[in-house]
Design a protein that fits this description.
single chain; about 70 residues; mainly alpha; about 0% strand
Length: about 70
């Protein structure tokens, strides 16, 4: 039995291989972008936690001042 390979088959293979390569690049870029979003969200959460801590400290300070009046 002979295997017939047509020029179109070779072209289809090349295109399919290129599509796979592009998909891998896209996945890599999506991972990098998502990591950037995650890092940004972690930074914002840390910033918000710091602000919350400062606000609580200020509130407690004012409560102490009111108690001493």
């Amino acid at each position: 039995m002979k295997l017939l390979i047509f020029p179109e088959d070779i072209e289809i293979y090349k295109i399919s291989k290129k599509i796979v390569e592009l998909n891998e690049k896209i996945e890599g870029l999506e991972c990098e972008r998502l990591q950037g979003v995650i890092d940004n969200n972690l930074y914002l959460r840390t910033l918000a936690e710091d602000q919350l801590r400062e606000a609580k400290a200020e509130r407690n300070k004012k409560l102490e001042e009111l108690k001493n009046i």
